[in-house]
Amino acid sequence: MEEKLINQFYTAFKNLDAETMVSLYHDDIMFEDPAFGILKGEEAY
């Protein structure tokens, strides 16, 4: 299952398909970057 999810995500990334990428995020996603700080949930979209 994890391999399928990863393949779907990176195929969408390659195809510049942000909508599909976002649909694969977990509800509790957290993203951290020096430029954006910590973003959680819908903030990370």
Provide structural commentary:
By secondary structure, the protein is of the alpha+beta class. It has one domain. Helices cover 42% and strands 18% of the residues. It is built from two helices and two strands, in the order ααββ. The chain has helices at residues 2-14, 18-23; strands spanning 30-33, 37-40. A two-stranded antiparallel ribbon has the order 1-2. The longest helix is centred in the first third of the chain and has 13 residues, at 2-14. The protein is globular, with a radius of gyration of 11 Å. It starts with a helix and ends in a 5-residue tail after the last strand. The mean pLDDT is 93.
Read across the widest sheet, the strand sequence of neighbours is: 1-2
Number of DSSP-assigned strands: 2
Unreliable residue stretches: none
How many helices does DSSP assign?
2
Counting helices, strands and paired strands, the structural category is alpha+beta
Strand content: 15-25%
Shape: globular
- What's the rounded overall pLDDT mean? 93
| Cα separation of the termini | 23 Å
SSE sequence, one letter per element: HHEE
The tally of structural domains comes to 1
Most strands sheet? 2 strands, antiparallel
Rg (CA only): 11 Å
Question: What percentage of residues falls in helices of 4 or more residues?
Answer: 40-55%
Give the key terms.
single chain; 45 residues; alpha+beta; two-stranded antiparallel sheet; 42% helix
Summarize the structure.
The chain is α+β, with helices and mostly antiparallel strands and 45 residues long. The protein has 2 helices and 2 strands; from the N terminus they run ααββ. The radius of gyration is 11 Å and the shape is globular.
